[in-house]
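Appendix C: a fully annotated inverse folding record. The material below is reproduced so that readers can follow the format used throughout the book. The structure is listed first as tokens, followed by the designed sequence.
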């Protein structure tokens, strides 16, 4: 058994065709798969983490990022083994239907829908504001300029998403490295600031860290792309999550080290711009646009393929008219809602998102247990000690606590200092 908790067994035939799910096989390279995880996880929210941890400090944030990253990775590996035990190519909702039943399938589907719609609304709004500042246009027109290439790649499918995620993720990493190096070389940067903070505020930071990792949805998509090389799937999952952790850690570390906890702005682009100069403001905002784009593709693509998987009567995802219709269902409502003023609807998504996190923690455990009893195939790899019941209990408790905190926070039931 390797130190990742994964052990090898008999491989899955590479030529297994998709059955009735309507999903087709499009091969992914290892780099493309890793980029899909990084791109989906790294939304523009990474730029608000320094502000969110301004009371607790960087060290508590780092600890919670590590805890959340480890247990989310384990959950993703549960989904990976489940997918590779199944002959047909399914998304999460299809796997849940196969191994947990209709209730589980609908719960997962609604979880995917709620999280995707909520995130896509945020990306529509955020991209519009950034492009409005860059180009001197209205936010709505800025969102439209973001929307057109984002939707086009979703229409082109998994192959285009993988390639797009790869190139833009490489660009994102390059921009972050430039900003981090400039920060390290800046005379105002003090490493000692990373040790400041108050541990009494550690609990709120926990919730931030948990919701920074959202790539469980795309694991079945990766399994489909690795159907000819299934042993690469766990390696891609672990590599992608490690890269995510590094990026999530170095951005707030750089900003806090540069400006201190007391001088944080809600968006790190402002802090970087004020401290490093106008070039840093534009670089960081370009990074934010790229982060929104890659996360849009990851979550939007997962939502689209989950629709095809859930509603088999739609037929194959490769049918142009049907794909365009489903793409409209995925992409148009978030664009409209971003500028509709329906604040109540967005708040409802917040509550639903808290519950969807719980669903996403429980369902992979149930699916894995059922797949080991009723799966179609002996997989090319399987989870080892990471599938121990004690670890599964911890995963569920983490997400339950996160959901409870989110609800209490929204209802103003927490101490005012939090």
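Designed amino acids, in order:
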């Amino acid at each position: 058994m390797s130190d990742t908790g994964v052990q090898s067994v008999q491989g899955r035939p590479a030529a297994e065709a998709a059955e009735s799910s309507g999903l087709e096989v499009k091969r992914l390279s290892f780099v493309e798969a890793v980029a899909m995880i990084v791109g989906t996880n790294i939304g523009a929210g990474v730029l608000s983490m320094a502000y969110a941890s301004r009371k607790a400090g960087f060290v508590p944030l780092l600890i919670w990022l590590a805890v959340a990253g480890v247990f989310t990775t384990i959950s993703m590996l549960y989904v990976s083994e489940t997918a590779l035990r199944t002959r047909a190519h399914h998304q999460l909702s299809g796997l849940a239907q196969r191994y947990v039943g209709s209730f589980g399938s609908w719960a997962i589907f609604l979880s995917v829908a709620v999280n995707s719609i909520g995130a896509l609304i945020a990306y529509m709004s955020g991209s519009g504001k950034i492009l409005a500042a860059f180009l001197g246009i209205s936010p709505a027109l800025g969102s439209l300029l973001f929307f057109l290439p984002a939707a086009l790649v979703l229409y082109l499918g998994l192959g285009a998403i993988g390639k797009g995620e790869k190139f833009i993720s490489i660009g994102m990493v390059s921009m972050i490295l430039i900003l981090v190096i400039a920060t390290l070389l800046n005379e105002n940067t003090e490493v000692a600031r990373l040790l400041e903070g108050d541990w009494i505020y550690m609990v709120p930071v926990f919730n931030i860290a948990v919701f920074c990792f959202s790539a469980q949805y795309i694991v079945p998509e990766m399994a489909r792309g690795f159907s000819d090389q299934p042993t690469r799937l766990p390696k891609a999952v672990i590599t992608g999550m490690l890269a995510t952790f590094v990026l999530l850690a170095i951005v707030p570390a750089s900003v806090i080290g540069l400006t201190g906890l007391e001088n944080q702005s809600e968006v790190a682009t402002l802090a970087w711009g004020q401290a490093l100069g106008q070039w840093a403001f534009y670089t960081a905002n370009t990074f934010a646009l790229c982060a929104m784009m890659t996360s849009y593709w990851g979550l939007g693509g997962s939502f689209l393929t989950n629709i095809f998987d859930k509603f088999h009567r739609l037929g194959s995802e490769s049918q142009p008219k049907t794909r365009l219709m489903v793409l409209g269902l995925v992409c148009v409502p978030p664009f409209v809602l971003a500028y509709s003023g329906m604040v109540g609807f967005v708040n409802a998504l917040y509550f639903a998102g808290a519950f969807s996190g719980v669903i996403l923690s429980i369902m992979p455990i149930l699916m894995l247990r059922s797949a080991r009893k009723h799966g179609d195939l002996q997989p090319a790899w399987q989870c080892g000690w990471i599938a121990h019941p004690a670890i599964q209990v911890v995963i569920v408790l983490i997400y339950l606590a996160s959901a409870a905190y989110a609800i209490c926070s929204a209802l103003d039931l927490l101490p005012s200092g939090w």
